[in-house]
Structure formats: C-alpha cells, structure tokens
Amino acid sequence: MQRFQINSYKEYEKAYQASIDNPEAFWEEIAESFVWKKKWSKVLEWDFTKPEVTWFKDGKLNITENCLDRHLKDRGNETALIFEPNDPNEGAQYFTYKALHSKVCKFANVLKANNVKKGDRVCIYMPMVPELTVAVLACARIGAVHSVVFAGFSASALSARINDAACKVLLTADGGFRGTKITPLKDIADQALETCPTIQTTIVLKRVNNDVTLLKNQVWWHDQLKTVDDNCPAEIMDAEDMLFILYTSGSTGKPKGMVHTCGGYMVYTAYTFRNVFQYSCSKTNDFGRDYTRSSPKDVYWCTADIGWITGHSYIVYGPLANGATTLMFEGVPSYPDYGRFWDICEKHKVNQFYTAPTAIRALAKQDTNYADNYNLKHLKTLGTVGEPINLEAWNWYNDYVGKGKCPIVDTWWQTETGGIMISSLAGVTKDKPTFATLPLPGVQPVLLDTDGTIIEGNPAEGILAIQFPWPSIARTIYGDHQRYKNVYFSAYKNKYFPGDGALRDASGNYRITGRVDDVIIVSGHNLGTAPIEDAINEHPIVAESAIVGFPHDIKGNALYGFVTLKDIGSTSDQEALRLEINQLITEQIGPIAKLDKIQFTSGLPKTRSGKIMRRILRKIAASETDNLGDTSTLLNPECVQEIMDNVL
Ligand code: WT7
Predict the structure, then answer these.
(1) pTM for the complete prediction?
(2) In this protein, which residues make up the domain named Acetyl-coenzyme A synthetase N-terminal (predicted)?
C-alpha cells in the first residue's frame, strides 16, 4: 500500500520506483484517500501526440467536499484560514473549517442567484482578502470555472482575459490595499467592462471604502449575502470537468488560458503539498498556541498571490485538501517595514514558509537584518519558487531565516504543471543550494540535446522535458488546443516541453538553468517579450522594438528595451518618450512589465530572414560583449556597434 506521506529517503525511493513501475497503481492508491462520489473506471489514458490526457476517467467528485466538508467532523473547529491584513493594526482574522465551509456555501448560493451555472466562467479580480479564497471555492462548489486575474493587471489585460474565456460574472472589490497604496480595482474593472459584452453581473466587495458608484448590473457583495443561506450541496463533477482557467504569458501571442481539471489537480496538489513541505496535521503543539485562534497543528504560509498558480495550488487547494491551516497575507514585504514577513511568522508561529527568490533578495539587501529581530523558532521548512535561486540568496535564506536548521525546498514547476514537479521533500530528501534536486514520485524528467535525443548518464546538461503525464498537467489552452499542442508537445516528439534548460549533477539532482525561449522572468513573473513589444509598437512614433532581460539584483531579471523610431529626429525629448512607452506598457499589461532601460537606436540586429537577434541584444544588455559570436551574417551588422556605443 502506498502511503500518502513519505517519511524517509527510503520511502521516497520506494514511492518513486513504484510510480515508474506502475503509474496507474501508484496514483490509484493515492487517489483512494479522497472522497469520490463515484469511482473511476480507468486511472489513466494518454496520448502526447494529440495531446490528450485523462486521469480517473468517469470518476465523480467535488473538490470542495475534499477541501471542506470531509474535515468538518474531525477538525471543524480547527483553523482553516488565517488572514493577515495589509495594516498590522487591523488584526488578523481566523476561519475554522466550519466557518469557511459556511462562507463558501453562502457565496456559492449568491453565484447561483446570479444565474451562474455549472461550466460558466467567472472572472475574479480581487485583492488578497478572505473573500477571494471564498469566491474561488464557491465557484468550485457549483461547478463554475474560475478565472482569477491578478489584481495588479491593467484594464486591457483584464478585459482580454474576460473576453478570451467569455466570462459571465465578474467578482471584484472597491479597491485593494498594498502597503501605503490603494489599487482602484473597481475603476480599473469598469474600464475593462467597457469592452466585455459577456459579463452579465459584477459583484463588488467593499474592502477599502473607496467612494465607488455601482453602474448597471453591478451589485454589492454584502447586499447579496443578505438573501442566501449556507446550505449548498456540492455539484457533482466529472474528474475531467474544468476546475479553473489561469492565464500565463507565452513567448508570442496573447496570454494562454491554461485549463486545469478537477480530479487529477486535486490529487496531485494535495499529495505534493503534504510531501514537499512535510506538513503535519497531527503534531500536538508544544509552544502554547492559543487554541481558540489557531489549531494544534502546523501553520503554513505561502506569500504568493492567489492570482498566480502558486496561490491556487499551495494557498488554497493543496493545503485545504490536507486539512491544514493556511495563511494568506494581503500586503507587501516592505510595509510597514521590511520586517513584516518575520513579524507575521512570529505572530502566527509559522512552521512552513514558502516565498520567491525576488522577495528573498529584496529582504537580504536591506541594511537592517530584520530577521534577527523576530522569533522565528517555529519555522521548520522554507520554500522557494518562481525562478532559479542564486547562491547568495539561498545562503541568506538558510543562514538568517532558517538559522541553518530548516531544510529549503526549491520547487520547480509551472502554471501548466499545476503542482510541484522537481523539489526536495523537506528533511526527507537532501536539499542542495541552487538545485531543485529530485523529481517527485510520478514525474519522469529527461534532458535532451537540441535535436531531441535523450542525454543519458550523469552529469548532463540540456533541455528539460517530461516524458510521462502526471495528474495535474494542464489539459489544454482554453479555446486553442492547437496552440497547446504547438507550444508544449511539438518541439520534441512524445514529450512535454516546459521551456526550461537544466543540468543534472552526478547524483541525479536537477538544477534549472532558466528559460530557453523568449519568456523573461521578472520578480518571479513570467513575461513574454511579444506582448510587451506589441504595446511599445503602438506608440505612434515607434517603428520597432525588442525586449531582452538583463541581470538585476532584486528582480532577478529586469527588462531592457531597444527601440527604433519612425523618424529618429522626431523627438528630442527621449526622457518623455520613455515615460510614454512605459505608460503604454502599464496600460496594456500592467506595471510589472515596465522597462528599466530604454535605448533608442537606428536599427535592430536581424538575420537575413528578418528575425531579430535577441541573443546579441541580450549580451549587450548584460555587458557581456567580449563574445558576441559571429555577427557578419547579419542583415545589418553595422547597427551592433552603434548599439554597443550607446548602451545604457
Ligand atoms: C517558470 C514557470 C510555479 C509557480 C511560479 C511560476 C521558472 C519556477 C522555479 C525554480 C528555477 C523556476 C521556470 C518555469 N521557475 N520555479 N524553483 N527554479 N526556475 O510559475 O509563472 O508558470 O513560471 O518559472 O522557468 O518554467 P510560472
């Protein structure tokens, strides 16, 4: 019998081997520990050439019964969710499983009252408040498909996502607190709604008390709650019914709406959550925790926003499916000062802490070492996700936060994979600085050379690919299965291609080396070059542009834009033009995609077929001009010197 929790290296080896020898038997046993309305007829059917993947065929379930109802009997009074607001003086809120269940059922009834039916898409554009978690689960309760859009995105990014999925209802708030700022979410949403014909109703949460006016077909969240009760039977879903859509940037074209389904996603996020973080529900507490506010078990905190996959899988679904106590934080690491994360860890006696390298670097850079001013003795596991973590940041995290005694799980995965793919299991398998280390049970990675041949043996370096399906793999891109096939399954036959490069050390540990496509990761956010270039090119005097990433102390990468103008003499005020360009980017994508540097040039290096040679621009931006490679075959080699002479 496969045990749900892996407790030793030996058990990891055994589980991994079992998952390779007989994947169906392996996942079947794991899946049996959940509540199903009807058992599956077949564990797995797959064909990467189509591509088509079906897990737990004909199985029926509702993920919210697994995240909420099934805990009510034994842990109904334990804390499910801790909410830490932006302003520390506002005070935290605690929701037991009972309370969360009741709130979810109530809001599910609100959705029903607003004509939301199984299969309808609901867009959620909200700040990091408990109602966001409630809204996500309420959708799942009634079988509506949630599409959460990060509340830092602009009106045009929001409307593009609403329209792509033809969402019926929008959930938003009057605004959101972020440090000293308030994001005017309702105003942004109203702007987006001007071009969103499919939205029938907008439900608005009052959070910041902004003076907002409800327009036609807009209602207040609190008014809606007055007329519903908390009795809402869970909709019976097929294992392969859509659970949610979440957008991620590609290297070209519009954002991709990754589709995740109910059964496999639930099984995989729950299994990986428990094992990677070694979350413990059963340990009695020995440090006098206040039982009325918290629970006698671990407190887990992931600092991500629910607008990203990390929040979906490891704030909401994975932890709740395990009956865990999960903390969500509304604010930013720098408010009221850079000690805030540690203040929260101390206050809530956080045991597992999961954040991103960009946050670690920002904290490590402060003159004061705030981590020393707080009691972090409850920390047992530290986690990192989003981009490769550099050694300096890893060491700082280990020394100052973990005090050298907390395992660090460096978790490699993607929006598309739904859950963690390569990572150590805290304290069970060894971590190694800057290495994600070993594949989780069920994950079969390989390294390929450029023509797709598998590189055997260790050590090795190549392109990362996965050669067997795992339960939470995205099933398609919403409305564009052909694109799904092209992007992920066409580069290498019969393999899933994530777009990353990797190396493997002599012991088989993986280290992710970074993207091999035109996606740039800025502060952990996945940004495609094409949409940013499209935004810049909308400026009336811009002819052409190329974006590359360059190393940045805190963000990991920052964006460098090379821009040619229609008439180089048409502006003397380059500074004003830079501001206008960044304004366009902010409007079309959001402030996270703003360029740190913008260099105007008379030409961009191009191949004879007209493709911009980003490789050269990348090297110039990173000041690595010693080895530019052969530029003589370019269409316009002369522009390279000009660009080097004027580099910023
Ligand atoms: C890309 C996916 C998974 C949630 C956050 C990002 C990079 C992610 C790591 C890591 C090195 C990492 C990869 C990946 N990435 N985690 N631990 N080490 N690189 O999700 O926005 O879909 O981005 O983030 O390049 O492909 P995402």
Answers:
(1) 0.89
(2) 12-67
Q: d(Cα 28, Cα 1) in Å, to the nearest integer?
A: 10
Provide the pLDDT for residue 570. 63
* Cα distance between residue 378 and residue 397, in whole Å: 15
Q: Indicate the average pLDDT of the chain.
A: 93
Please choose from 391, 414, 443 the residue to mutate so as to test ligand 1's pocket, defined by most ligand atoms within 8 A of CB. Answer: 414
| Rounded CA separation 461/480 (Å) | 32
Q: Whose CA is nearest to atom 21 of ligand 1?
A: 526
Per the omega criterion (within 30 degrees of 0), is the bond before 51 cis? yes
Strand partners, 84: 329
User: Residue 373 gets which letter from DSSP?
Assistant: G
Protein residue closest via CA to atom 7 of ligand 1: 387
Domain ranges of the chain: 523-645
3-state helix, strand, coil in the chain (%, to 5): 35, 25, 45
Q: Which two tokens stand for residue 443?
A: 């994950």
For residue 402 the two structure tokens come to 């973990």
Q: 472 CB under 6 A from ligand 1?
A: no
Please work out, in degrees rounded to the nearest 5, the angle formed at the alpha carbon of residue 206 by the alpha carbons of 156 and 92.
Answer: 110
Q: Is residue 378 pLDDT above 50, yes or no?
A: yes
Per-residue pLDDT tens digits for 561-597: 999 888 755 667 889 999 999 999 999 989 999 999 9
Q: How far is CA 413 from the centre of its chain?
A: 9
Which tokens go with 126? 């909200």
Cα of 126 from ligand 1 centre, angstroms: 23
419, 446 in Cβ contact below 8 A? no
> Which strand (E) or helix (H) includes residue 618?
helix 614-621
Nearest Cα to 520, choosing from 558, 465, 464?
558
Angle formed by the axes of helices 9-21 and 23-31, to 10°?
120
Tokens 């049996």 appear where? 32
What mean pLDDT is predicted for residues 237-258? Answer: 90
Q: Which pairs count as long-range contacts for 185-192, CB under 8 Å and 24+ apart, including other chains?
A: 185/125, 185/126, 185/127, 185/151, 186/210, 186/212, 187/212, 188/125, 188/154, 188/155, 188/158, 189/125, 189/155, 189/158, 190/215, 191/155, 192/155, 192/156, 192/158, 192/159, 192/162
Q: Enter the tokens of residue 522.
A: 């800025």
* pLDDT band, very low/low/confident/very high, at 74 (cuts 50, 70, 90): confident
* Distance between Cα 411 and ligand 1 center (Å): 8
Answer yes or no: CATH 3.40.50.1240 is held by domain 523-645.
Answer: no
Cα 516-522-525 angle, rounded to 5 deg: 90
What atom in ligand 1 is closest to the CA of residue 436? 17
Q: Give the closest residue to 515 by CA, choosing from 557, 565, 564.
A: 557
